[in-house]
Structure formats: structure tokens, C-alpha cells
Design goal:
The chain is mainly α. It has one domain: Serine Threonine Protein Phosphatase 5, Tetratricopeptide repeat (Alpha Horseshoe). 49% of the residues lie in helices and 6% in strands. The protein contains 21 helices and 7 strands. A 3-stranded mixed β-sheet has the order 3-5-6. The longest helix has 23 residues.
Length: 478
Amino acid sequence: MNRNTKYAVIIMILSSLLMSCEKYLENTQLPSGTIAGTDAFVSDNSTSAIVTGSFISLNNSGPFTGSSSANIAYITGLYTDELKNISTATFADAFYKNTITSSRVGHWSDLYGKMYVINSTIEGIQNTTATLYYKDQWLGECYFIRALLYYYLVNLYGDVPLALSSDYRVNNTLSRAPQSQVYQQMITDLKRAQTLLSADYKDGFGATTNNRVRPNQVVATALLSKVYMYTAQWDSAEAQATAVINNSAYQLISPDQVFLANSKETIWALATVSDTKVVEYGFYNNGMPAEITPPADLVDAYIVLVAMNSPLLNAFEPNDTRYTNWVRSTTVKATATTPAVTYYFPNKYKSATNGVEKEIVLRLADLYLTRAEARARQNNISGAQSDLDAIRTRAGLPGTTASTQDELLTAISRERQVELFTECGNRYFDLKRSGKIDDVMNVVAPLKGTSWSHYMQLWPIPPGDIVLNPNITPNPGY
């Protein structure tokens, strides 16, 4: 694929997105002398449009999409112990019963499609002869996105091909790289992003903004801390988390305020074309009243297909204000033939008003719990207790009674369960990285009316990709 053809492909892929990026591109003058033209990377305007398109595409398909059959928080919640299927929806039942097939999981192709665009964009920015006034921002944002894409690929599929260019002749023959190699690339990309990005949040014209929807240095640092946690580099995970926690721009706040747009707890939220309701409002709320009188029901009347599962509900301690603020119930009244049934739903996103809330991907509480675990792993008992208690105090709970390393690791795991539930696949990924997924799922699966096998912790790779590239091996069991 030659240079002109490659950039034409980028433009075709993003063309529908670029027309939708106006909110992030308008009403700001670029510096005088900015080059104008028709080539893909001839100006900050065109480069910004392409990079912005990659942020918007995170909402349009893949892990963060508004489609419940693809949204990573939704389907991993069903797949593990967070959510239960209350509908006859085929996709929901497949994830709930752990019977997924490659036809049910479209993330592999979607994430690698986004990867192709990002790799092409990095090459285009690096190779352009035009003067880009905000070149560092565009490159830093791209390196961050590439690390994020690999973060999800590795956690869903295990070893994955490490594609770092747009050369299809190379990419179509890549074998699966060890996870350790892919994580090292994430670390490299995030360190690059740290050096390139500003400490401030910037908009699509390089101007400082209050909107926390494009990555800055702190966003890259937060994801880097999590990557170090996943690779058991505990001292580095602690150091990166500390850099975020010590930044006064970020604060733990009351549970009822956490998910408001640009809250002090937000590190990074998803960009949207325009102010909209957060997709999770539709997943779990959709205007349901506290009581429903049959024949109306949750599925037909409100298109709500899932509810919270009992293992998650039972994990909350009495008087936890997160339960008060982040869990809601609806009772379907009794009839002559059926008893009343009460269902419980995630209620982190409550507003039907556009723009009031933002879908948060990274927030400060996660970094406190990351540092707590990193400290516990290094036998810094008092430091781990302090971080854990910061989260518990915010939730209206007393300080932890855990006083040994093992007790603290158990307490931190439970705290992550009730703090980060139904957020971005955290529970699923935590269970796998801790080696606890088989223990948990062997208990939970029978409650779902199914069974669990070890191979299910990884998802199936599309057979078509394996046929096209015989160097890619399938995941066991599929």
C-alpha cells in the first residue's frame, strides 16, 4: 500500500467521524501561518480531525460503544459475577452462560481496525514535512490510544500480534507476541505520551480546556500505573499512582458527585460528538420507576435486559454510601399467579439530561486502590492501609481491620469489587490478573445454570483472521 493510498484509506475510514468532530474543532483560531491544504497531515486542522476521529470512534464501536452486546463493562459484567440476564436476549444469555463464540465477540477486528488507523496516523505525523504547531499533542494522544487498545486486546485475548506499523504485508504475517512483550510496548508508548503531552487538558486546537476528554500527562501516568500493576512491577505502579494522587487537580469526592462531567475525581472520560446521556443510563435505568405494575415489565417497557447479580450485591458492607448512591431497585408487583420480584441495578449514571455526566474510563479511586495493592505487595502494611482507608472513609465506612499482607490483598480485592463494579471490565481483568477467576467462577457458574472451564478466561479469535494469517493460533477451547 503506497503512501497516498494509505492516507486515502484513513480518510475513508474516518470520513463519517470527521464531520462529527465539530464540537472539538470549532471556535478556536490556529496560529497564523498554519499550513492549509488537502493532504492528510498538512496542517494542525487536518491532523487534529484525524486524531479526534480516533477518540470519537471509541464510542462508535468496540469496548465503549452504546451497543449493549459489545460494551465491555456490560458484557464482562454478565460474563463474571456482576450482572445477571433477566431477558431472553441471545447475546446476553451467551455471555451470562459463558458460551460465547467468535460470532458473539467482535472486539478483535474492531480493535485492530482502530490500531491500523492509529499506526497510520503516527506514521503520517512523523513523516509530514508540514509545520505542526501541536505535533507533540497529536503524537502523545496517538501513543496513548495505541497503549489503550493493546490493554484491551491483551486482557481479552492473551498473547496477541504486536502490530506497530500500517504495512499490511508485515501485519498479515505476524504471530502472537507474548503478553510480556505487548505490555512492554504499552509501557514504552505511555512513557512517550508522558513526555509529549501537556500537564493541562487540551482541546482539538491545542488550547487549554476544562473538559477531561483528551489525555494529558496525568492520564498517561494513570494508565501506566495500571499497566505496571498488571505486570507486577509494584514499585513502579506505586510511583506512577503517587504522581497522580499528589496532583491537586484530582480529589476523591462524594459518591453522588463522582460521575458528573469533569468531576475532580475524573482522570479521563470519553469524548462524544455532542452532549448526550451516558450509555449506561440506558443499560440499567432508562427511566424505570421504583415499582412496575404488570403486564408492563423491565424488558419490553424499558428495554433493560440485566440486573445486578447476588455476589456483587452481597459484597457491600452495611452503611456503605456507595450502595446508597450507586445501586437502585425496581419492584415488579405481584399478580394473582406470580409473587413480587425486586431487581437491583447499577446506578452510577443517573441522569437523562444530556451532558450532565460523562463516561469515565480512569478515575482517582482506581489509583488509590492500585497504590494500595502495590504497597501491600511490597509489605508496606501501613501505606496500604492508609490508601484503602481513604476509599473506605469516602464511602462512610470505618478503617480496615486487615493487618497482614494476605488480609490486605483480600480486602483490597473486595474494595475494588464494590468501588469499580461495571466499569470498563475492571472486575473481569482483576480476577484474571490475580489468578482468582477459576475459584470465583467455579462457584458463580452453577448459580447461573452453567459450568466454567479454565480456557474461558480468554475469548475466541475470529476464525477468518486465523485463515488469513496461519501464524495466528486460536485460543484453546474454541
